[in-house]
Amino acid sequence: MKLSVLSVASEAVPLVKTGGLADVAGALPAAVAPYGVAMTTLLPGYPAVMQAIGAKRNGGRTLHSYNSLLGEPARLVAAKLGGHPLIVLDAPNFFARPGSPYGDPAGKDWADNWRRYAALGRVAADLAGGAVKGRKFDLLHAHDWQAAMAPAYLRFAPVAKSRAVPSVMTIHNMAFQGHFGREIFGQLGLPKAAWSIEGVEYHKGVGFLKAGMEAASAVTTVSPTYAGEIRDPEFGMGLEGIITSRGDQVRGIVNGIDTAEWNPESDEALAANYSARTLAKRVANKRALEMVFGLEKGDGPIFIVVSRLTWQKGMDVLLEVIDHLVGIGGRLALLGSGDPAIEEDFRAAALRHPGRIGIRIGYDEALAHRMQGGGDAILVPSRFEPCGLTQLYGLAYGCVPVVARTGGLADTVIDANLAATAAGAGTGIQFAGVNYRALAMAVSRAVALYHQPDVWKAIQRNGMKADFSWSRSGKAYADLYQQLVAASR
Ligand code: ADP
Asked: Is 309 a pocket residue for ligand 1 (Cβ < 6 Å)?
């Protein structure tokens, strides 16, 4: 059966991105298309999105207008996202703002984020419920807390005469849940019945992600290991009870990568293209990387990091291990931004180790590609990692992942221990526990393996051969949609 699915997210490449969610939301339409799913994406009309779709004030093809969407005028504009249908929520009072999608230029969250993303959820529920002529959907797929009110509106306040539409709630990161005070409830346009433990109420306030998880027909997250981990309080962060109560309906589907964007054989950002058969060409990229990061030229391994600089990502522990890494002949090139204190500490580390540690604070997509193409190993010491994409890019680029054994990192990297090496299966290094000792040992192992060129090359090649394209996961999502639609009819 051919299905029509509405996917709603707060970011999607190539229009707007702050993290892995954007990669996934942008790739999903093409990933599910081969399996009989026509996906339309709904995105907020941030300035970058409005500009990219060429819709200036009141321009573009208007599908639907709201006199009052949670009190503000709004309209839906039809556009395209990588050849697939896109609907943009043009609501200037909510979204025509500078800064990131979620906060002002100084990095402070917008105080009315609850209203901005409740509006997105309301619109998604309207669309899925058939309120807009000519657009019919069989299923709604909501991503993260910003879209999580969509299933809640569908369940508690559906548009008149709409049939029941099943929904999927995908959690890309349990650490971001969208909690707000009780006082907003009256302004959400929900019936009183929604104020309950089975509805939007969470610890006497409103929980957006919690509401979506309760209301959706199925909950997914982005790796099988994370799906298991979030049953524990440490990873579930308060929502473990709902995860447990939903039992087998909570699935983990690993993210794929866009293999057209991330392919070392054709990547235009690289100084030299290469494949698993021509790994020697990588050296040109390594030399280029040394230049960009002001690193001494050398044959020792270059570790790279492309990451948000936060506690989640274990960056504080990496800071502790830097002297050890340099002491055993490693160098580090780091690109990222985030916690100001961590940024400052990395700057200080670079000053302490000139030529050995190179730091770029900021966001630079092309540089991220060049680092994967020229670095020897990518460090991902996350305390928790729902899926993680940078280790997948590392695998594809022969930049050997050194990862904490958690979430999607555990599911996607095969530790090159003796047995795996003998079987020709190892693709990287895993370590257990994000602490000085475990990370320092992992870095030492990486350096030792690097100095066994045949073993190292085999690890690189194994990783490059691994298939992390979207085909398997696209099918897994499509199968889930089919099951839910069949069950709802
Ligand atoms: P998360 O979504 O938790 O930040 P992921 O590993 O799932 O982590 O996705 C991060 C994505 O953002 C990857 O595509 C990575 O390459 C990219 N990224 C992170 N930081 C930067 C940066 N400073 N510059 C360029 N790309 C970055």
From this structure: no
- Ligand 1 site-directed mutation target among 307, 361, 397, most atoms within 8 Å of CB: 307
What three-state secondary structure class fits 182?
Answer: helix
Residue 408 CB–ligand 1 contact under 6 Å: no
Distance CA 140, CA 298 (A): 52
pTM for the model: 0.94
Positive or negative, the CA dihedral 442, 334, 406, 241 is positive
Q: pLDDT tens digits for 430-447?
A: 999 999 999 999 999 999
Burial letters for 66-83: b for 16+ Cβ neighbours within 10 Å, e otherwise?
Answer: beebbebebbbbbbebee
Given a contact cutoff of 8 angstroms between Cβ atoms, the answer to whether 238 and 247 are in contact is no
Distance, C-alpha 483 to centroid of its chain: 25
Which atom of ligand 1 is nearest to 335's Cα? Answer: 23
CA of 171 to the centre of ligand 1 (A): 17
R_g over Cα of the chain: 23
Pocket test for ligand 1, best of 11, 16, 102, 390 (most atoms within 8 A of CB): 390
Q: How far is the CA of 431 from the centre of ligand 1 (A)?
A: 21
pLDDT band at 57 (very low <50, low <70, confident <90, very high): low
Q: Domain spanning 3-256+471-488 has what CATH number?
A: 3.40.50.2000
Amino acid identity for residue 281 in this structure: K
Q: Is the Cα dihedral 336, 341, 347, 353 positive or negative?
A: negative
Quick: pLDDT tens for 398-410: 999 999 999 999 9
Cα-to-centroid distance, 334 and ligand 1 (Å): 12
d(CA 368, ligand 1 centre) in Å: 9
Which residue has its alpha carbon closest to ligand 1 atom 4?
Answer: 19
Whole-number Å distance, alpha carbon 363 to ligand 1 midpoint, is: 9
- Which part of the chain is CATH 3.40.50.2000? 3-256+471-488, 279-465
Residue 362 CA: nearest ligand 1 atom is: 23
The amino acid sitting at 408 is G
CATH architecture of 279-465: 3-Layer(aba) Sandwich (3.40)
Residue 317, token pair as written in the block: 């522990």
Vertex 145 angle, CA 139 and 150, to 5°: 35
DSSP code for 297: P
pLDDT tens sequence across 411-422: 999 999 999 999
- Render 60-98 in DSSP notation, one character per residue: SEEEEEEEEETTEEEEEEEEEETTEEEEEEE-HHHH--S
- Concatenating the DSSP letter of every residue in 299-336 gives SSPEEEEEEEESTTTTHHHHHHHHHHHHHTT-EEEEEE
